C-alpha cells in the first residue's frame, strides 16, 4: 500500500479563502446533479500565487468554469488542481457541475440513501464525495443550498428562505467548514416544539423521523430543550439560528453528527419509548442529544484548524456532555460510569499498538482517529485543567475562549493560551498530556511518624508506539484522609504533582490516617499502591468520596477475582460481607449499589492480570467470574427477595435517574437470584415486564444461566418489526453465549433473515457482540478470531469505516499466550493480504500487526 501519512508538522494555511458557496442539488437516486458556485479569494496569509487544490472523490465532472469562462480541467483520483499562475490575483468564482450516485453509496459517507431517504455525512472528509471543494476545516464559508426533489421534506443547514413545489432553498449565515454541511430529503414527519432563548428569541425545534416514529421522540425533544437551557445557564451560550433540526436515520456509521442547524442522528440515539428502550438507551439519548447540541459552540462556532486538533472540539464537547448528564442525574454514578468506560476503552487502547496522543501528529486515514483517546481522554484533560485552575478560572477561560476565537478554526495552542492568559499559569508541562500517549502509572507509598503523615508518589510514563521515552506530567491528585474511626480528617485537597517523584506531608495527626487517593478519579492514571483488603473494606464503608468508595469495592473485587484466576481460591468472607453491607444499605443510592454489585468485566480482568505480569487465560477468567457470582448469590440469597420486591416501581414508568437506579439494583438482584432459583423469578419478571429495561434485563438473567430459549422466541415474535429492539435480540444471545458456543451462535445469527449486515447497527449488534464476549471471542479454538476477520473482510469493500472500527477487537493481542497471539497475527495477515483493502482497515490492521 502506498498511502503516505499526513503530518501535523506539514500544515500550511489554505491557498484561498471562500467568501460564499451556492449549491444546487437535483436529487435522483442513481444520478444526482450537484451544481456549485464557490467564490474564492486569495488568502493574504499565503504569498507566491499558490495552486488551488480542490478535493473531489468519485465525482463525474460534467463542466467547470472560472468567472463564467469554461475550464478544461482533468480531475485526478482525489481532486483537481487549478494552477496558481492561471488564477486571478483577486476574488473569482469557480463553478462546476458534477454527477454522483447516492444509491450506490454503501460507505455512508457523502450523500447516500437510507430507506428511501437522502442524507449526508461529511465529517471528516465526506464533502469531497459531493462536489469539488477545499474540504478542510480551516476554510469556512456561508452556504446557500437549493434542493430539487419531489420528496416532501427538503432540509439543509441554517434557515429555510424559500420553497415551492419540488424545491426548497436554505441559507446558513454562519461561516462553516464543509464537514458541517448537511442535506436531508425524504418522506419525514416532525415532532416539533419551541424554545425561547435567554435573550427572548424563539427557535423552532423539529425532530424528523419516518412516519410512525413520531411518538418516539418525546424524550429526545425533552433532552434537547434541557440541553439548550443548560448551555445558557452554565456556559452562557445561546443558540444562534431560527430553527434547529434533528433527523433520525437508520443507516449511520457513528452515533450522531453536529451539522450546523441540522444534526443527523443514528435513530438509536433518538427513538425511545419505555417499552422499546432501556434505561441505558434513555441515558445515551440524553447524552448524545446534548453532545451534538453543545457542538454548536464547541465545534461549529469555534472549529478545528485541521484534523489533528480533533480533540479541541471532541474532548471539550464530551466534557460538557458529561457535566450536563451529571447535573441531570447522579454526579457520583455518572463519574463511576465514565471511568468504567474510560478504562474499558481508552486505557485498553493506550496499552496496545493503537496507542496515540490525544492530539496525534500523523495519520493515514483520519476516520481511524475518532477514538476513545481523542474523545474520552480528551475530556479527562479538560477535567484536569479545570481541577488545576479551579472552577472560577475555568469559567473565565471559557468566556475568553468564546470571545477570542468565535468564528475561527483554532488549535490546541490557542486553547491552552486562553487558559494561560486567563490564569497567568504556564501550561507548557500540561501540554504534554496532548502530545504524549500512554497511561501514566502512579505509585504511592506512605509513612507516619510523630503526627506527620507523608504520601510519596512516583510517576512512570510507559513507552507507546513511536514514543519510547516520556517526560513527567502534571498530575492533579485529589486526596482526603480518614481517621481510623472513619471520620474525615482532611477533606478533599488537590495535590499537584509535577516531578517524577514527589512527597506531600500532612501535620498534626493523632493517629495514622487511611488515605483516599485520586478522589473523583482526578487524573487518568493507574494508581498502584499496596493496599490490604481490610483497608479497602474500610474505605468502601467510610469514604466520603463516592467515586473512591466505589473504587475501593471494585479493587477488592478485582483482588479477589485475580486470586481466584491465578490460584483457584474461593472468594473470602471479607469481600462478601463488605459487598452485602453495601447491597442492603438504604442510605445509599440504589444506582450506586447496583454499580457496586457489578462484578469486574472479563476484558478488564485480562488487562489487569496482564499488567501484573500474568498471561491471562480467558477461559479461567470466565470460570472464576462465574464462581464469584455464584458465591455472591449464595451469600446474598436471604436479602435478594426483599430487595426485588421493595424496589418494584409502583407508578407509571419514569425514565429518570432515580427510577432507573432502582431498576438497575432490582435487576442486579434478579441476576443473582436466578443463579439460585433456576430462573423462576426471572421468567416471571420477563412475563410481567412493562418496559424494555426489565424485559431485556430478565431475559439476560435467563440467558446467563443457559435458559431463556422460549423467551427469546416470544421476544422475537413480539419485536420482529422493530429494528432497534431486534438489534438487542441479536446482541443478547451472543453476549450471553457460553464461551464454546459463541462462534456458533454468531454463525447461526448471521444466517438469520433479519441479519442485514449492511446496516451498521445490525452488524455491530452481531459482530460487535462477538468481540464483546471475551471468553467466546478468545476461545482457544480461534473460531472467534476467524469469524471476525471473515466479516471484516466482507464488510470492508462496502463500508470501510465500520470495518476499521470493529477491527480494534484485535488490539489486545499482546496480552495473551503464544497460541492466541499467533492466531490473531494470522488473521491480521489474512486481512492485510486482501486485494483492494481499504485505507481505513489497512491502516488499522497494519498498526496492529506491528
Ligand atoms: N462529530 C461526531 C460527534 O462527535 C462524530 C462523528 C464523526 C460522526 C465522524 C460521523 C462521522 O458528535
Ligand atoms: Zn462530538
Automatic annotation (TrEMBL):
Query: Which stretches are transmembrane?
Result: none
The protein's annotated catalytic reaction(s) are: Release of an N-terminal amino acid, Xaa-|-Yaa- from a peptide, amide or arylamide. Xaa is preferably Ala, but may be most amino acids including Pro (slow action). When a terminal hydrophobic residue is followed by a prolyl residue, the two may be released as an intact Xaa-Pro dipeptide
Query: Which cofactors?
Result: Zn(2+)
What is this enzyme's EC?
3.4.11.2
Residue ranges occupied by any Aminopeptidase N-like N-terminal domain in the UniProt entry: 104-180
GO MF term (any one): metallopeptidase activity
Q: Where is the Peptidase M1 alanyl aminopeptidase Ig-like fold domain?
A: 438-529
Question: What keywords are assigned to this protein?
Answer: Aminopeptidase, Hydrolase, Metal-binding, Metalloprotease, Protease, Zinc
The enzyme's first-digit EC class, named in words, is hydrolase
Q: Which GO terms describe its biological process?
A: proteolysis
Identify the Pfam families for this entry. DUF3458, DUF3458_C, Peptidase_M1, Peptidase_M1_N
- Domain (Peptidase M1 alanyl aminopeptidase C-terminal): residue spans on this chain: 534-848
Superkingdom of this protein's organism: Bacteria
**Where's the Peptidase M1 membrane alanine aminopeptidase domain?**
219-430
Q: Which NCBIfam families match?
A: pepN_proteo
The text of the family note is: Belongs to the peptidase M1 family.
By its UniProt entry, which PANTHER family does this protein fall under? PUROMYCIN-SENSITIVE AMINOPEPTIDASE
Q: What is this protein called?
A: Aminopeptidase N
